[in-house]
Amino acid sequence: MADVAIRPGADAAGTVSVPPWRWFSNRVYALCLVELQKLRHDRTELVTRAVQPVLWLLIFGETFNRVHAIPTGKLPYLDYLAPGVLAQSGMFVAVFYGIMIIWERDAGVLAKLMVTPTPRAALVTGKAFSAAVRAFVQVLVVLVVAAILGVDLTTNPLELAGAALVVVLGCAFFATLSMTIAGLALTRERLMGIGQAITMPLFFASNALYPVKVMPGWVRWFSHVNPLSYEVDALRGLLIGTHADLLADFAVLFGSLAIGICVASALLKRLVR
């Protein structure tokens, strides 16, 4: 009997049974599982990557909490800083994820994935969310440290679930940004250089460390188009109860991720030429 290829929207008998959205989501889920299996074999990565954000809380946060140099109203500065460090720690992991894509290209893995029936958008989405899950595990470590330091975090399960979704969306977007850079840079060395050049501007030109109102005008403008600012705003609103425009925050994060997936998918083929 000849082999029958099962395509989205059809079963082995040729009748329509598998909706395209389910086939797409199954591909994304499978790619996420593959990436998480890699994480199981290198758990020390979680600890080493968590060192820098923990130091931001322990040294920078505790110091500025005492000197009251940054105007945060009645909110302690450490409480104000914690959501920003959570977002930063996830971003720093995700923005260098493109290095893995280039490594897969050099090892021939990416070329094999590209000739499978998996759409490029599903491939990028799966890898983006797997990078987000990697970063989220590190964010949990930072969250525990923040709680130990006395940050007044919410215990509402719905708000915690919302914060988890915010982190995943933000990290997934920065992973697609990294894959876009990989498609343009083509080498690990160039990607590392570009990644290092953009991470600090993204971090400092956001509301992660200080309120937008204290920024110079041109930095304030950049903050308004910086997805990290919307991620931090949503995290503050959900985790510590400050005023936040959650509808706008989620809209920007979803929109940024959708654009990131489209652009990275368009550039993915350039890597395997």
Properties at a glance:
single chain, 273 residues, 74% helix, mainly alpha
What does this structure look like?
- The protein has 273 residues and is mainly alpha-helical.
- The chain has one domain.
- Helices cover 74% and strands 0% of the residues.
- The chain has 11 helices and no strands.
β-strand number: 0
Helix content: over 70%
Name the average pLDDT.
81
How is the main sheet built?
Answer: none
Kindly, what is the distance between the CA atoms of the first and last residues, rounded to a whole number of angstroms? 36 Å
Which structural class do the helices and strands define?
mainly alpha
Q: Helical region count?
A: 11
Written as H for each helix and E for each strand, in order along the chain, the element string is HHHHHHHHHHH
Beta percentage is under 5%
Q: What is the gyration radius calculated from CA atoms? A: 20 Å
Envelope shape = globular
The figure for the number of domains is 1
| Poorly predicted residue ranges | 1-7, 10-16
